[in-house]
Amino acid sequence: MHARRRFVLAVAALALAACQQSKPGRIGIITALSGSQQAFGQAHDRGYDMALEEINASGGVLGKPLEIVKYDDQSKADIAASGVSKLVDQDKVSALVGSYSSESTKAIVPLVARRGVPLLMPTATADNVLENTQGWSFRLCSGATDYSNAMVKFWKDAGVPKSVAIVYENTNFGQANGAAMKKAATEANIPIATEESYTAKSPSYTAMLQKVKEKSPDAIYFASYLLDATSLMHQSRQVDLNPRYFTAAGTGFSTAEFPTEEKGAGKDADYTFSVTQWMPESKWPGSAQFAEKFKAKYGVTPAYHAVQAYVALKVMAQAVKNAGKWDPVAIRDALKAIDMPDTIFGPVKFDARGQNLHPVLVTQIQKGKYVIVNPKSEATGDPILPTPKWSER
């Protein structure tokens, strides 16, 4: 009892220190501006910049221009962890938004709790990032469980596969999404043909994919970042792997680059299904206008990662306004109570765990373009099934 009381007092003291030391007007950003996840970090960066420009054009926060301090975690969890002390202790930010990957985000969650500074996660999907938050962390996006449940729902609408192979990279993100699909498929009485984990950025996946082929799965569910998603589809063609469904837990399979020849799988990306958290065609107000503005500014159509960053900064800025002061405890409490029904990412409201209740879409790449195919109420086209064999494309 006494030890617990000392721990609570220590946390309170740290939170008080953060309140006293933070510099009004600053929000810290942690994301992957370099390294293997740079494509996603760049999308984040652009979303943050667009939000900052709009916030300051409309008067800033509490009467002053908002300042964001960016930190590059280089796509590495240990460097993301170092970013917390840099931004909070040196740059004196009052709140944090980040990171990109589940691995990096999980590393920073206990650190912000110790310092008594609120964290808003825009993108990390591993559900364990919401563990050990002590009430200081909030997640804007849907998680791995939501992803797998959305894909299983799509299968039930389109034709339940006879079996599924689960292929995931050996990181917090991959493991969480692989485990979530195993649970969801088992509950739906879909047999697991095989489970295969791999090391990211391996030179070749053909041996692993050959093992998957030998199991003749009716569906494959990938959990992969962009570089691996590209290689996995090229090499699926090389080994002539032909399931009825190629599906994925978003991420690499749902980026603007993935269907392109320059940075992605090109034509080998066609017919793949993926969960996603936003599309320009989404019916949330302002989605189409944001996509147009983003494309005019950067020359590409945004994927959901840019939108998550854009909305995350808007939500954090609104929390500061609702708090009425640059006080970490007040900002945290404002996040707990926030209710923003009309963002371009849909309604934003956090449950007791700090999770925003955000719906998930399923898309298919058709002729190099993402088409929403589920839920039917949001669909912009019908799924093409079964996936054509490589020899017939």
Can you walk me through this structure?
- With 393 residues, the protein is an alpha/beta fold.
- It folds into 2 domains: 2-142 and 284-348, Rossmann fold, CATH 3.40.50.2300; 145-276 and 360-392, Rossmann fold (3-Layer(aba) Sandwich), CATH 3.40.50.2300.
- It has helices at 2-21, 38-57, 77-90, 102-115, 144-158, 172-187, 206-214, 226-238, 287-298, 304-323, 328-337, and strands spanning 26-31, 67-72, 95-98, 119-121, 137-139, 164-169, 192-198, 219-223, 245-248, 273-276, 340-343, 346-348, 361-366, 369-374.
- Helix 2 (38-57) crosses helix 10 (304-323), helix 3 (77-90) packs parallel to helix 4 and helix 10 packs across helix 11 (328-337).
- Mean pLDDT is 93; it is low at 1-20.
Shape: globular
> What is the class of the largest domain in the CATH system?
Alpha Beta
Q: What's the CATH architecture of the largest domain? A: 3-Layer(aba) Sandwich
Mean pLDDT: 93
CATH topology of the largest domain, by name, is: Rossmann fold
Strand order across the biggest sheet? 7-6-8-9-10-13-14
